[in-house]
Design brief:
about 110 residues; mainly alpha; Arc Repressor Mutant, subunit A; 2 domains; 4 helices; about 0% strand
């Protein structure tokens, strides 16, 4: 009986320790994700500030404001073709500033 009770206590302690370790791992992983996300956001903001104002404006309105290219054109009183060109050129420049990879597939971010 004592041996079984001792075995039960050891199993319970091991299970509890595993749960604590797993919880600590999950917290560490969440912190890592938050730090990485913050650093990535800072890099994108820095890169955006290096773009010419018209390109930055179009990209910010579209990606952070949620506007379509047509809406960006209307908001900025700019021809739609010009907005498209500014966005494409801006995205290419961002890709270069962020070290290659595709900005849209998350490669460099």
């Amino acid at each position: 009986m004592r041996r079984e009770e001792s075995l039960r206590r050891r199993r319970a302690q091991a299970t509890e320790q595993f749960a604590i370790d797993r919880g600590a791992h999950e917290v560490a992983h969440a912190v890592y994700d938050k730090v990485w996300s913050t650093l990535r956001g800072e890099r994108v903001r820095e890169a955006l500030h290096k773009l010419p104002d018209p390109q930055r404006e179009a990209l910010v309105l579209a990606y952070f404001g949620g506007y379509t290219q047509r809406e960006v054109a209307a908001l900025t009183d700019t021809p739609l073709g010009t907005v498209k060109t500014r966005m494409l050129t801006g995205m290419r420049r961002l890709r270069d500033l962020l070290g290659g990879g595709s900005v849209t597939d998350g490669g460099a971010l």
